[in-house]
Specification:
heterodimer; A: mainly alpha; MetI-like fold; globular; B: 278 residues; mainly alpha; membrane (chain B); cell membrane (chain B); transmembrane (chain B); transport (chain B)
Chain lengths: 364, 278
């Protein structure tokens, strides 16, 4: 890349910029922007993978019918107490968000996010089929529910254990750095290696867990095919796998807390757990929120653990959204419906990404 | 402050750290035990964590027959190709966005920022139909190209180039050096640490990616090791023998674990960037 014509100074600034940025813009336009809009377009069609592959005209424009078929049903009504537990939780959440926002205990963005989440928790579970009604797709909302349950278990699991570990490991000594490495190691493994290991760990006949249970005279649990334990098994696997990133982010956050604070606290006899509670936690609030949002985005997209360990079973209890999209598209060949679900996924992910962006900005 | 409390803490933490390591150790240990033994019991010595009886026949068998070596090679090609591709488009675009002025710069930047929000799962169906129309499935470029469109590398490089003092460029401009030459001879050498981070992030992603190879590579000859491993784990006990499947798992993990142990600082940095931005 030497100097070009048009004088000694080569290309104009604009010319150079266009040459440098066009390779990226080309792949970006072709393989991200275009597919995104094509995805939305597919979701507006009756589009069978195999039929359209043989005859491009075999698709039919159906407008928003796919969204209706996926998310709606016949005779759907709304009731304030159709799903009392979740809806009451939602009401409590709305109250909490109002109170936290009013008293400025958390940042405005956090309060608004909490408020929206709580409002959705109150409104969404209220929908249900009325007398003689039914969902058009009986599996969609339970699948979304399973995904949310997975997120609700994995995110606190990862966050709490990573936070405690980070606080304990936050010292620059040789031993601590070795321990950090050990906790981080599993993070670099691929999902198929992780599921391979844990599938056999959980195996009732060959598994390490079963071997240990038998050592103490217990009878082994059939983890992956028992409705009560399958989700737990997947969550355990996920916590083991993805603790590392959260721990590292917390360690980075801990670096920003001034040592003076701890020394001052030590004078007041606040060390150990007390110091953790009164100094570490309050000063780490922003990092904690960020880690939680990141984890939600990451774990909402769970696929491999469910696909490889339980195949969504037993009885659909570990069926998650991305796996349902994958199956609808590539097993049932229903690209239109699958794309509608993918758009739904994008909207949710987009919401959390905006939240993450806002929170990240606040820091600066 | 190496007092008694500190040693207690280390000892206390060593227990969960060991438990954390056990699943990985177990995989390695099982891969080093004969299949006939594993068919009977997986807890011969110390719950199976120590490979006695010991054998290396699983690894020998892996390389003698089966497709694991081919899949491994595919993974190397795809991961290196993707890494080079991402580095090429990200450094150039990152520099242009950070330092050069051109029409529509702000809209381009906003467009790229929006792209950060689009998860792979939201575009894999249209990408599939598009690549099917082009007849591109079951090829290396089909596995490589979609990731090159993810703007995270552009932002990583842009942030890096922004932090470099402007004097260096200005001095070169006064000497009459063209923009492209400045990029190539001055900026790229400075950008090595950021490129290293991006390279590792991309390599790890490429090596471990599962969903896109799953839909794009249907012929076993084009499986990556990650995908190949998934294809043999569902019926491991009957066909291949537990020891051999575990040996495949070890082989599949070896490059990323070695990469991690050598470049730990970069890997941690890369995964933090990757984790926090998509």
């Amino acid at each position: 890349m030497g100097q070009q014509t048009s004088g000694r100074r080569g290309l104009s600034e604009t010319g150079a910029a266009l040459i440098l940025i066009s390779p990226f813009l080309a792949v970006y336009g072709l393989f991200l922007v275009y597919p995104f809009f094509k995805g939305v377009w597919i979701s507006l069609h009756d589009w069978n993978l195999l039929e359209v592959a043989f005859n491009p005209d075999a698709k039919e424009y159906v407008g928003l019918r796919n969204y209706e078929r996926v998310m709606w049903g016949k005779g759907i009504t709304w009731g304030a107490f159709a799903a009392p537990v979740l809806q009451i939780l939602g009401l409590i959440g709305i109250g909490a968000a109002l109170w936290l926002g009013r008293t400025a205990r958390v940042s405005r963005a956090t309060a608004i996010a909490l408020g929206i989440a709580a409002l959705l928790l109150f409104v969404l579970p209220g929908f249900h089929p009325g007398e003689g009604g039914r969902w058009y797709d009986r599996r969609f909302w339970p699948t979304v529910g399973n995904t949310l349950v997975f997120v609700a278990l994995a995110v606190p699991g990862v966050t709490i254990s990573a936070l405690l570990l980070a606080a304990a490991l936050n010292r620059e000594t040789r031993a601590m750095s070795v321990l950090r490495t050990l906790f981080f190691l599993s993070q670099v493994l691929s999902v198929t290696v992780v599921t391979l290991i844990w599938q056999i760990m959980f195996s009732p006949r060959q598994g390490l867990i079963a071997n240990i249970t038998e050592l103490f005279g217990g009878s082994p649990i059939v983890w992956l095919t028992d409705e009560r334990f399958a989700m737990a098994a997947i969550v355990i696997t996920t916590v083991w796998w993805s603790l590392g990133i959260a721990m590292i982010l917390f360690l980075a956050g801990l670096q920003d807390i001034s040592k003076d604070l701890y020394e001052a606290a030590a004078l007041d006899n606040a060390t150990g757990m007390k110091a953790f509670w009164h100094i570490t936690l309050p000063n780490l609030k922003r990092t904690i929120t960020l880690v939680i949002v990141l984890q939600i985005i990451l774990h909402f997209q769970v696929f491999g653990q469910s696909h490889l360990m339980t195949q969504g079973g037993p009885n659909d209890t570990t069926q998650v959204l991305v796996r349902y999209i994958y199956q609808t598209a590539f097993r049932d060949s229903e690209l239109g419906r699958a794309s509608a679900m993918a758009v739904f996924l994008f909207v949710i992910m987009g919401g959390f990404s905006i939240l993450q962006f806002v929170l990240g900005r606040e820091k600066d | 402050m190496q007092n008694r409390g500190y040693y207690w803490l280390v000892t206390l933490l060593a227990i969960p750290a060991f438990i954390w390591l056990v699943p990985t150790l177990w995989m390695v240990s099982l891969s080093l035990q004969p299949n006939e033994v594993l068919a009977r019991t997986t807890s011969s010595t110390a719950l199976g964590l120590v490979p006695i009886p010991f054998t290396t026949e699983n690894y020998a068998a892996l390389f003698a027959f089966g497709q694991t070596p081919l899949w491994f090679l595919n993974s190397v090609i795809v991961a290196l190709g993707m890494t080079l591709g991402v580095l090429a488009v990200s450094t150039t675009a990152g520099y242009a966005l950070a330092r050069l002025d051109f029409p529509l710069k702000t809209p381009v930047m906003v467009l790229c920022l929006i792209g950060l929000m689009v998860p792979e799962q939201a575009v894999f169906i249209p990408l599939y139909t598009m690549f099917a129309d082009l007849g591109w499935h079951n090829s290396y470029h089909a596995l490589i190209l979609p990731r090159m469109a993810v703007p995270i590398g552009v932002f990583l490089m842009m942030q890096f180039f922004r932090a470099i003092p402007k004097d260096i460029e200005e001095a070169a401009r006064i000497d009459g050096v063209g923009w492209l030459a400045i990029f190539w001879h001055v900026m790229l050498p400075l950008a090595r640490p950021a490129m290293m981070t991006l390279a590792i992030l991309t390599f790890l992603y490429a090596w471990n990616d599962y969903l896109w190879p799953l839909v794009s590579a249907q012929k076993r000859d084009y499986f990556t090791i990650t995908l190949g491993l998934a294809s043999i784990q569902s019926n491991f006990a009957q066909s291949e023998g537990l020891g051999r499947v575990m040996a495949s798992g070890v082989i599949a993990s070896l490059p990323v674990v070695v990469l991690f142990l050598i470049f730990q600082r970069y890997v941690v940095q890369a995964m933090t960037v990757g984790g926090s931005k998509g």
